[in-house]
């Protein structure tokens, strides 16, 4: 039977199974979108300054050109919604989606269920860059730039070291990432010890937070997340091919080294942008892809798009918990994701050999 990609070489009389493309299950897509919408509405309405659901929905519908409904929010409530609450929720959507899809991409190219977006040193590099910005008394605009630059340079150093000692081996890249992360963390610790008056702010950034002052952070991270996510989604079929191994993928015409490089670069760019405005929020890149894989299937044509939706939902809900559970105080959102992710990580360790 011909598959439409070349001549039919099947021996006469020998039956072959039909090749069916893997498609995103509609029920999981609709369920993910419904839960995401509910999380967004909760994020917009719940907080120290509670907002009525009907008023919030009216304000959103009023954004449609030509629509002007009565019964919206008053001026104070509208300011809370559009200047504080909405930017924070949208930032959570972007960061959560990016970390989740980057984690899925890393797991695909390294064929390792424990891989996450911070595997190759982006977290250590971003942390060092942010530390330098904080202790130097830089402006609020300098911190994201320093964190982004540090994250990219950290991964570049990992690639340079890995290629120098082990060629194109994935194991050499992983070991290089461990070495680079350890070195950058040591430098960060030294800087912190020399500037103890800045420790509180540094650790506040390291623990992760979604603090916004308008739409500036959203506009900063949006282009990077959009480009990175588009590249990763475009490579989802190739990640399925890589799952059989680099040598086997090569026999199928897939350049494993080039695909790995493109996926890592895209995931690194998006992750560095995300952590530059949110700090180091852990476990999203591990927890979310595994949840999707257990529920909807292991094909990356399913995992990547659903991971983006579930990751966005997960971080919006985690941030909602972080800013309400100790109200009027606030927990770092990274503490909430770690509270959920650490037990899940233990389960992954126990079941990885059986499920990967």
UniProtKB/TrEMBL annotation:
Molecular function in Gene Ontology: transmembrane transporter activity
InterPro entries: ABC_BtuC-like (IPR037294), ABC_transptr_permease_BtuC (IPR000522)
Keywords tagged on the record: Cell membrane, Membrane, Transmembrane, Transmembrane helix, Transport
Locations listed in the record: Cell membrane
Membrane topology annotation: Multi-pass membrane protein
Signal peptide from the UniProt entry: none
Domain of life: Bacteria
GO aspect biological process, one term: siderophore-iron import into cell
Chain ranges passing through the membrane: 28-47, 89-106, 118-135, 141-161, 173-191, 261-288, 300-325, 331-349
Name of one Pfam family that matches: FecCD
Gene Ontology CC: one annotated term: plasma membrane
PANTHER family registered for this protein in UniProt: ABC TRANSPORTER PERMEASE PROTEIN MJ0876-RELATED, FERRIC ENTEROBACTIN TRANSPORT SYSTEM PERMEASE PROTEIN
Family: Belongs to the binding-protein-dependent transport system permease family. FecCD subfamily.
Protein name: Iron complex transport system permease protein
Protein species of origin: Jiangella mangrovi
């Amino acid at each position: 039977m011909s598959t439409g990609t070349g001549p039919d070489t099947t021996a006469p009389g020998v039956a072959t199974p039909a090749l069916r493309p893997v498609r995103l299950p509609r029920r999981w897509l609709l369920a993910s979108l419904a839960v995401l919408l509910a999380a967004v509405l909760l994020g917009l309405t719940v907080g120290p300054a509670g907002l009525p659901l009907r008023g919030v929905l009216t304000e959103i519908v009023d954004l449609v050109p030509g629509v002007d409904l009565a019964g919206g929010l008053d001026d104070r409530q509208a300011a809370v919604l559009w200047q504080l609450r909405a930017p924070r929720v949208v930032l959570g959507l972007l960061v959560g989606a990016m970390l989740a899809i980057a984690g899925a991409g890393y797991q695909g190219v390294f064929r390792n269920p424990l891989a996450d977006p911070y595997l190759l040193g982006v977290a250590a590099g971003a942390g060092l860059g942010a530390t330098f910005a904080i202790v130097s008394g830089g402006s609020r605009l300098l911190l994201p730039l320093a964190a982004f630059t540090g994250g990219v340079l950290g991964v570049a150093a990992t690639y340079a070291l890995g290629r120098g000692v082990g060629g194109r081996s994935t194991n050499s890249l992983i070991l290089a990432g461990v070495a680079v992360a350890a070195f950058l963390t040591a430098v960060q610790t030294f800087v912190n010890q020399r500037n103890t008056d800045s420790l509180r702010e540094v650790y506040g950034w390291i623990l992760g937070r979604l603090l916004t002052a308008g739409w500036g952070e959203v506009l900063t991270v949006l282009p990077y997340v959009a480009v990175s996510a588009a590249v990763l989604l475009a490579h989802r079929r190739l990640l399925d091919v890589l799952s059989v191994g680099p040598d086997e993928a090569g026999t199928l015409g897939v350049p494993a080294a080039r695909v790995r490089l493109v996926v890592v670069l895209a995931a690194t760019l998006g992750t560095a942008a995300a952590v530059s405005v949110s700090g180091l929020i852990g476990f999203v890149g591990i927890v979310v892809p595994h949840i999707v894989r257990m529920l909807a299937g292991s094909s990356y044509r399913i995992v990547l798009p659903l991971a983006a939706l579930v990751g966005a939902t997960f971080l919006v809900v985690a941030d909602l918990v972080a800013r309400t559970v100790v109200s009027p105080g606030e927990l770092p959102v990274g503490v909430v994701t770690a509270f959920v992710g650490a037990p899940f990580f233990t389960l992954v360790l126990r079941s990885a050999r059986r499920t990967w």
